[in-house]
């Protein structure tokens, strides 16, 4: 019934008077249209549309849409409510890129030693020296003064091998891309000499990688043997020619790879008689510098190796566990005995220097404090005493025979 009524209502709607109605003359269009005609909405198409007018007409035509329109209309903003404040976005902290060469060197711990020459101290072994220092440790020394670094070599097609020196702690570049005689893909633990511009020396402590072969998992004794063997097989590096003969020559980069002396024998005799005395004195090495000719003449002879003796200032002694592998960072598998205290600019003359204390502890512990060594010395003493007694007895017997004759 409802749909039929709607259809009847729609059928009664007209657009106005038809052409057949009236006397045939066209009447002007006015706003007074017949009731129920949709012509009254035609004028709205040519004038600005008012949203309230549209809403009223929609309500008149379709009252059922009133609820839907009210829900879709935005809520008025109250003047009493403060405007919404956007929270500032937090800036994401960019993560600092970690350097893969940072803290890669095997850094030794300082050997903590106690000076107390008492019987209780010697018997309790609380002086700080390793108990198996004679059999389970090796030594490197004298360790020179300089900057600890890593030497990393690379190569490109048609380009000779070049090296880069990076700092121990942060891995920053100390010297970038200089030619060297090392094979490519090699990583060495080194010390850049304090006076490298005068002598061109780069001291080699240890080998981490050689020609792409990782040797860090090998024992210390093997790595030091490998280091000395491989460095001895390298060709002699030629120093670059001087740019100006009127000034003193300065090396633009290190050319001499000098291994730190390795001591596999750390017994009492070697420590007290050989290793410790060499650490106190400067080490003299032969380095090659180009010959400087007058008036800056650079010929082929100027590149000839001019060998000079250079003094390398010592800094201390390094001890390594013989069976230890190479590990990054501070390691208890290596101990450092400095010549002078590292953190004391004005050392107290009454306090012994670390190396002097080390020598004293080695003497007391390994000679006088060890019962086995004491027994050996005592046995040798008794044998010598018996031999002397026999000689004296033989001489007395010979004298008695002469007197009888």
Task: Explain how this protein is built.
A hairpin with a 7-residue loop joins strand 13 (314-321) and strand 14. Helices cover 28% and strands 24% of the residues. The N and C termini lie far apart (174 Å). Strands 3, 4, 5, 6, 7, 8 and 9 form a seven-stranded mixed sheet that branches. A five-stranded mixed sheet has the order 1-14-13-2-10, sandwiched between helices. A two-stranded antiparallel sheet has the order 11-12. It has helices at 2-12, 51-61, 66-72, 119-124, 196-199, 220-232, 268-280, 354-368, 371-404, and strands at 106-110, 137-144, 146-156, 159-167, 173-179, 187-193, 201-210, 213-214, 256-259, 262-263, 283-289, 306-312, 314-321, 329-338. Helix 7 runs antiparallel to helix 8 (354-368). The protein is built from nine helices and 14 strands. It is of the alpha+beta class and 405 residues long.
Describe the structure using short key phrases.
9 helices; seven-stranded mixed sheet; five-stranded mixed sheet; extended; alpha+beta; 405 residues
Total strands: 14
State the assembly state of the protein chains: single chain
Share in helix:
25-40%
Note the run of SSEs as H and E.
HHHEHEEEEEHEEHEEHEEEEHH
Kindly report how far apart the N and C termini lie: 174 Å
Question: Main beta sheet, described?
Answer: 7 strands, mixed
Number of helices: 9
Structural class: alpha+beta
Quick recap of the structure?
By secondary structure, this protein is α+β, with helices and mostly antiparallel strands.
């Amino acid at each position: 019934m409802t749909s039929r009524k709607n259809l009847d209502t729609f059928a009664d709607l007209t657009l106005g008077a038809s052409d057949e109605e009236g006397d045939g003359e066209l009447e002007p269009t006015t706003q007074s249209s017949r009731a129920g005609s949709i012509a009254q909405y035609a004028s709205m198409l040519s004038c600005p549309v008012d949203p309230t007018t549209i809403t009223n007409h929609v309500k008149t035509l379709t009252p059922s849409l009133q609820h839907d329109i009210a829900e879709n209309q935005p809520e008025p903003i109250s003047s009493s409510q403060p405007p919404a404040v956007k929270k500032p976005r937090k800036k994401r902290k960019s993560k600092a890129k970690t350097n893969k060469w940072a803290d890669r060197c095997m850094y030794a711990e300082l050997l903590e030693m106690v000076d107390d020459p008492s019987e209780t101290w010697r018997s309790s072994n609380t002086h700080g020296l390793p108990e198996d220092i004679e059999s389970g440790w090796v030594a490197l020394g004298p360790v020179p003064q300089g900057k600890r670094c890593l030497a990393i070599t690379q190569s490109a097609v048609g380009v000779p091998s070049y090296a880069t020196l990076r700092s121990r702690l942060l891995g920053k570049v100390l010297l970038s891309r200089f030619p060297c005689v090392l094979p490519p893909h090699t990583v060495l633990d080194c010390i850049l000499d304090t006076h490298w511009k005068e002598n061109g020396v780069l001291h080699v402590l240890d080998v981490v990688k050689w020609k792409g072969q990782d040797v860090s998992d090998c024992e210390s004794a093997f790595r030091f043997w490998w280091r000395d063997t491989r460095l001895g097989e390298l060709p002699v590096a030629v120093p670059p020619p001087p740019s100006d003969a009127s000034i003193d020559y300065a090396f633009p980069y290190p050319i001499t790879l000098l291994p730190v002396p390795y001591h596999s024998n750390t017994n009492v005799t070697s420590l007290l008689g050989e290793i410790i005395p060499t650490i106190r004195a400067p080490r003299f090495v032969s380095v090659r510098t180009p010959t400087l000719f007058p008036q800056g003449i650079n010929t082929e002879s100027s590149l000839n190796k001019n060998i000079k003796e250079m003094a390398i200032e010592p800094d201390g002694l390094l001890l390594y566990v013989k069976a230890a592998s190479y590990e990054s960072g501070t390691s208890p598998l290596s101990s450092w005995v400095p010549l002078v205290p590292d953190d004391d600019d004005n050392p107290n003359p009454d306090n012994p220097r670390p190396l002097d204390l080390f020598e004293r502890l080695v003497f007391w512990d390994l000679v006088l404090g060890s019962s086995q060594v004491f027994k050996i010395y005592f046995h040798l003493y008794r044998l010598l005493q018996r031999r002397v007694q026999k000689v004296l007895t033989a001489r007395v017997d010979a004298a008695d025979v002469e007197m009888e004759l």
